[in-house]
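Recap from last week: sequence in, structure out.
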Amino acid sequence: MSHLINRGLVDTTNSTTSTLAANGIFSGSWVDVSQFADICIIASASVSGTLFVDFSTDGTTLAKEIQLTKGTAGDFGIHSLSPAAKYYRTRIINGASAQVSM
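Predicted structure tokens:
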């Protein structure tokens, strides 16, 4: 999984290639995106799962979650969105099967 922020910078705190067990969860770290006009999220996995982007006003408390995929496929696609709050993180909830790749 790779997340790109502004001018091709990769946010390593919200990126991983570590696979998830069945029903496992990956949560990135809160990152201040107040200086960015948009966030581009690119992700895929070998099994179905659900991709979210979460926003927070204080970097601790979830203020808004946006579900980016329906959980029916491993191709999570490419998503570009404007920050909805000062901080963001990515989150994936894996499906019922263990991943071989992410």
